[in-house]
Amino acid sequence: MLGGVHSGRPGLAAAGACLAGVVVAAHALGLATRGGRALPGRLAGTVWFYVAAGAALLAGMGLGLWLAGGVAGSADAYLALRLAHVHLNVLGWVGLAVVGTEFTLWPTVLRTRMVPGLERAVRWSLPALAAGLAVVAVGLATQRRLMALAGLAAYAAGLAVALVPFVRTARQRPPHTAASWMLGAGMAWLVVSVVGDLGALAASPRVVDLDGRVTRLVPAVVAGFALQTLTGALTYLLPVVFGRGAWGNRRLAGILELGWPLRVAAVNLGVLGLVAGVLPAAGWWLAGLGLGSFVPLAAVALAASTRRR
Description:
Strand content: under 5%
Order of helices and strands: HHHHHHHHHHHHH
Low-confidence stretches: none
Largest sheet: none
């Protein structure tokens, strides 16, 4: 699919998108029909976050193919469709999947119990998040600014509901490890991104004017939220999967957490500088070093696990 987009071959891009779409649709259907029964009752609702994320990805792929085919019409129509495509992928595919995962991953990483009311947050947050995202996408694609604003506001409200147990869990046991600090910072940057997106759209006279205003939020979304959340999750999960027991778990965690306060500080200071527009070169270096240092540490940890095995 990517090869078809970059080489200007719509047929190849469409074929790749269809193959990927079949896989995503089958996975979402499997989750919808069987996933809920595999989880305890209070967590069964989290499955629908992944189903909704899959639906957002399919819709985003459809808009991406439309854009790749060059049938958007005018330049404004192209920008509007691209904005809808980006929001479906970032807030939908990535955002919904991460929020749904945090309901269970966050208390697990903090090594504490789930707070009361978590199942209510699961049940009440998804309708606002999913419906808000759908309204955002339609409003952006059709260049209806007020509709897009209403959708973003609904998405922000759903995110606020989902964050209630997240914050209560952190108050019950504050972050104290590399994984917990990265996951917490990642969620904070998601909030900054959504609020900044809402403010930028409110300040834009037209929908297409948003395209130039959200550029500054790219580091917050990519490095602060997505990559930092992925790094934090892997920092916790790799020792669990490859540690082969309590001793091995602690050993691999010690490798992955080497110098973690400096690395976490570098990532978030770098992203903060980029969002604020202060010393952008230094910001990218700090964020890149903070995130990139995880790769050699993970390689060393996996090599140590292989040797022990």
